[in-house]
Amino acid sequence: MKRKFKYKHSLGQNFLIDEFILEDIVDASGINKNDYVFEIGAGNGALTRCLLNRGKCVVAIEIDKRLMPLLKSNLKNYPNVIILNNDFLKLNFDLIIEKFEKFGFDKRKNHIKIVSNLPYYITSQILNETLTNPYISELTVMVQKEVAERIVAKPNTKDFGILTLSCNYFSISEFLFIVTKNNFYPTPKVDSAVVKLVKYKKFIDVSNDLNFHINDDENYKKLFKTIKAGFLQRRKKLINSLSNALSKDKRDLSLIFQKLGFDENIRAENLSILDYEKLSNLL
Ligand code: SAM
Fold first, then answer.
1. Predicted pLDDT of residue 71
2. Which pTM does this prediction carry?
3. Which atom of ligand 1 lies closest to the CA of 62?
4. What pLDDT, in 10s, does the model give residues 72-128?
5. What confidence score (pLDDT) does residue 205 get?
6. 140 C-alpha vs ligand 1 centroid, how far in Å?
7. Where along the chain do its domains lie?
8. Using a 6 Å cutoff on CB, does residue 117 contact ligand 1?
9. What are the tens digits of pLDDT across the range 16-27?
10. Is the CB of 13 under 6 A from ligand 1?
11. In angstroms, what is the span from residue 156 Cα to ligand 1's centroid?
């Protein structure tokens, strides 16, 4: 990386400089020559190169136009890469599929794996978009350590929240390893960690209606409306939060809690995703 390059903190530009950690991430992802890999935020292409050596092909996006010449030059010897100067938040995913099709991707059969050192300021949006996207089967991503802890948190802990429940709904998640801040340039303020999320089969079924999106599913909408209502005032008793936020009669809620065997004094962080599904079904 040229010394005169002005890193943009606002774009989360902290580049991983340790080759061994880059390889550890690719090892942890388990990708092989059959895998279609999507990288969000390619930066200087250091991780991209490791992914290209192991995967079938990589489609990499990078928002910063200034990095394009460097990325292209660093990856010029790889025939199995497509680099796009795009903003993930404005991305039409059909474009990504189209690019993978050049390498034999079949929409009705194949899936895409994400391996990335994420731009941290948009971690939630990226997780939300990718977990709900049926073409994406797995994610191995570096995030802020405290976000990784929230993703894998257990009920009854302070880290357990909407992010945890959303990840638990779609996937099995695993905390892989910590990467301390001195492994990045420029050095960020916080440590990072790599997590892996493997989505449940039912959320990657592309054999049926490809126009269907989980965001349109009434049960899904109701479930997350319930969860968000519960966590709106996480220090209060769940029954009170739900009653206030959903305008429900407390006596009705009390009966539902009894039916499900839930203590009336529980708080939002005491229920698992399965408990929330049962609760939402009865509301
Ligand atoms: N892949 C490199 C690495 O592992 O060192 C860089 C990772 S760095 C943490 C995140 C990268 O995401 C930066 O290069 C940044 O410019 C890029 N980025 C930030 N916002 C983005 C967005 N909305 N869409 C695509 N890329 C983005």
1. 96
2. 0.94
3. 26
4. 999 999 999 999 999 999 999 999 999 999 999 999 899 999 999 999 999 999 999
5. 84
6. 15
7. 9-203, 217-282
8. yes
9. 999 999 999 999
10. yes
11. 34
Instruction: Give distance in angstroms: CA of 43 to centre of ligand 1.
Output: 5
- CA–centroid distance, 150 to ligand 1, in Å, is 22
> Is any atom of ligand 1 closer than 6 Å to the C-beta of 257?
no
Q: 231 — alpha (psi -120 to 50), left (phi > 0) or beta?
A: alpha
- For residue 61 and ligand 1, the question of a CB distance below 6 A is answered with yes
Q: What is the pLDDT of residues 40-71, one digit of tens each?
A: 999 999 999 999 999 999 999 999 999 999 99
DSSP string, 240-266: HHHHHHHT--HHHHHHHHHHHT--TT-
Tokens found for residue 238? 């769940």
Q: Which CATH superfamily is domain 217-282 in?
A: rRNA adenine dimethylase, C-terminal domain (1.10.8.100)
Q: Are strands 192-199 and 136-144 parallel, antiparallel or unpaired?
A: antiparallel
Task: Say yes or no: CB of residue 75 within 6 Å of ligand 1.
Answer: no
User: Distance from the CA of 215 to the center of ligand 1, in angstroms?
Assistant: 26
The pLDDT confidence band at residue 2, using thresholds 50, 70 and 90, is low
CB 204 within 8 A of CB 136: yes
Topology at the third CATH level for domain 9-203? Rossmann fold (3.40.50)
40 lines ligand 1 (CB under 6 A): yes
Instruction: List all residues 6 or more positions away from 33 whose beta carbon is below 8 Å from its beta carbon.
Output: 54, 55, 56
Residue 174 sits at the vertex; the CA angle it makes with 217 and 90, to the nearest 5 degrees, is 50
Nearest Cα residue to atom 17 of ligand 1: 41
